[in-house]
């Protein structure tokens, strides 16, 4: 497997400074001037002159430089958008097809792109695997719409639609299954930041069942902090009946 260095991904021509400032006292700053020649680029600035009495020791001068770079982010985002549209949304030049039960419409994709973003897909498409030989993969444990969101994220770095709690939960499970770590982190962060006390018990149960530790702890904290309002709810009764060990854990946390 080839390991790409940062310079391979972002050539140095996209990392030129667009502004440089310098400070000698940590407070005031002077903007440097850019002077470009055909063969080099210079940045200059005029600072107050410093004079030192002969024979007297003086602390060394310190200068702090602040540099802003042009990284070409907007250009790369636009290029990525066009690539996503051409390769994924238009399903162009695909070499693998994901099929679903009940004759749902297949989703086509590209083996190399998926393999570069997911170790699970990379293993799936090894030469001696059945999926590699047939070019067809049957997906039975992930809904088609969720799998589409997963692939869209792999191609573009963003989901096809805005996240909701239901989508984020299903997408987190899919991201974990196919080892798309950044998507899993985003779904986890979304779920944690959107926990409401009215539905915190259900969120805690879901996270407990699927072993999503961070979401479970966040939901548990909300339940503990809002115990007086939550205990009379039907959700608390379901928790005590169907998940007695989790209910005991929550009760002990409340009493601590």
UniProtKB/TrEMBL annotation:
One Pfam assignment: BTB
UniProt entry keywords in alphabetical sequence: Metal-binding
Molecular-function GO terms, alphabetical: calmodulin binding; metal ion binding
Protein name (record): BTB domain-containing protein
Keyword Transmembrane: no
Gene3D superfamilies documented for this protein: 1.25.40.420, Potassium Channel Kv1.1, Chain A (3.30.710.10)
One biological process term in Gene Ontology: response to hydrogen peroxide
Residue ranges of the TM segments: none
Span of domain BTB: 94-163
Record carries keyword Ubl conjugation: no
Domain of life: Eukaryota
Listed PANTHER family: SPECKLE-TYPE POZ PROTEIN
